[in-house]
Amino acid sequence: MSTLITDQRTDTGRDLNAAELKRQIGFATVLSISGGNAVRVGPSVVDFPDSRTGYSVRVRLEADDTYTVQRVFRRSGKEFLHGERTDVYFDEVGEVCYYASCFVSYDADEWVTKA
Fold first, then answer.
1. Number of domain units in the chain
2. Smallest Cα–Cα separation from 71: which of 42, 44, 50, 40?
């Protein structure tokens, strides 16, 4: 089930260090998700887009020092949420991002790893 994203917070009061996030996710995982591409959406948000499919993995640093990982689909200037996991700690972010990028294999309910 997809939900149209109408209001997306890009600033949670925390500045996200994109280089540190890439290191936490892992170089090979970032390559497999987006070919190494990372797009800064706001002070607290980074997208890892897959330009072939319209999907991207969006990572937001929350005020409580955890991450929110979303699977986002873009079409015609609109964004649709295809799954989300909140309260992701730094040591889990690589695995969660990888499963979020596997949109063909895992639907919105399956890609969420066990909390």
1. 1
2. 50
